[in-house]
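Weekly structure sync, notes
Attendees: PL (lead), two postdocs, one rotation student
Agenda item 3: pending single-chain targets
PL asked that the sequence for the first pending target be pasted directly into the notes so everyone works from the same version. It is reproduced below exactly as submitted, 332 residues in total.
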Amino acid sequence: MQRSAERLRAYVTGGTGFLGSNIVKVFAERHRATVHCPVHSFVPDNPQGYTIEPLDLLEADAVLASVARFNPDVIVHSMILNDLAGIYARRELAWHSYVETTLTLAEAANRAGAKLILVSTDWVFDGTQAGADEATPPNPVNYYGVLKTLSEQAALLRADRAAVARVSAVNGVHWARAEMPRGQDPGFGYFVATVIDAVSRGKPFGVWEGSDINMAATPSLASECAEAMWLIAANVQADGIFHCCGAQPAGRMELARMACEVFGHDASLLRSVGPDPEVLASMAGARVPYDTTIRTPRTTEILGYRPLGARELLERFKQEIETGGLIAATGG
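Predicted structure, written out during the meeting:
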């Protein structure tokens, strides 16, 4: 059973971040939901289609009051402390930023009678559980994965109605900022944009390959992840764990070559290189899961959502860049 989109009110944390900006745009623009975003580190000058409120999510009483004022049907918690080395350096802050904020939002959701959707990650798996599905037990190998796993449990056990939306290898358009990070890291985030940025200017690009980084994942498009989350939000009976990702696993070089083909660039500019030693050294000894490919059987069954293959997602990414806007939804 689905709610009327006109009546759905969504409170989205991290709404000015990369994935969060896609959640906001899909909910507000494509589905005409009323969207409100607490903002802290980045405040947009002219938010389009949603309202904002300066708020520190670490201030529990302020968060509870903010949610009560907005009175949402759903809370989508996409805010993260996006700094792998930083969460090791500031472990207490990281704990509060992930686990404690989830507990606070679970309480806020309960008071409002809202559903809580926690955005999570394929890094809850250890890198040896290739093709993990929604029922596969997590086994994280770094503090980020631990924090996300505990946040999942906080949401599922403390919220009266809760869903976990895991994502993987997310690429796409950042709708809240003109510029995105342009640098390769041990994961897959921003990877396609980083590749295309280099080869579009005729520059060689060294694709990192090695045993100590994330070498295989399930490429996703941020707007498609958001569409799956919309289906979770709109379906009052959709709870538990969902994998909001693409349908096809890929390795780093495979994805880079496919991106060059789809975007019409020269794949011969790609080189296989080892990871940057300085980047690895900056990670405070954190291990990185090697193969975090995931599958979507429960998600497909419950939501009726057809995840797309990597090439289709890249083609949609290209269209979003060229048109400057969302394109038609694909499933659900």
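Discussion points:
- The longest strand covers residues 115-121.
- The chain is about 40% helix and 15% strand.
Action: rotation student to compare against the earlier draft before next sync.
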